[in-house]
Design brief:
Elements lengths: L9 H11 L9 E10 L2 E9 L5 E13 L2 E9 L7 E5 L7 E4 L9 H26 L7
Antiparallel strand pairs: 1-2, 2-3, 3-4, 4-5, 5-6
Length: about 140
Amino acid sequence: MKKFEKHNSSKKLAIIRAKNTRITKREEVFLKHDEQILSPTDKIVWVYKTNKAFKVKEITTVSYVTTVGNNDYTVIYYDNSHGGVMHSHLRTSIQDSSDSPMILRVSKKGNQGNLLHWAIKDIMNNWYYYRKKFLLRSGLKQEF
């Protein structure tokens, strides 16, 4: 059988590619997480991947979470896990859990550590505005 002979199954092709692919550098990655309380009902939660030298490799999420009634809702979150491009996701409302990804407002300069810091700072500076707009989209009055 020839090395590049066509196979009927894409699974077989994937196995052949995996066996023939060499990994030149394998880096150990650690998952780190933290949170900061903003008010009795609001907090920021962030999760990121780092290497042994504590260099941020990927931003998994930087989320603003609010509590309405007894339920927690992620109002907005930033990540760069889709192709490495930093972007935000904004939840529509309490009734509609869909979110809309946006790239427009996101700082695109700097390394992963700078982007992580920027996202945390953005939520810390604007969480009250995000909460107000989220409650308005949900048809609720601003409660505090």
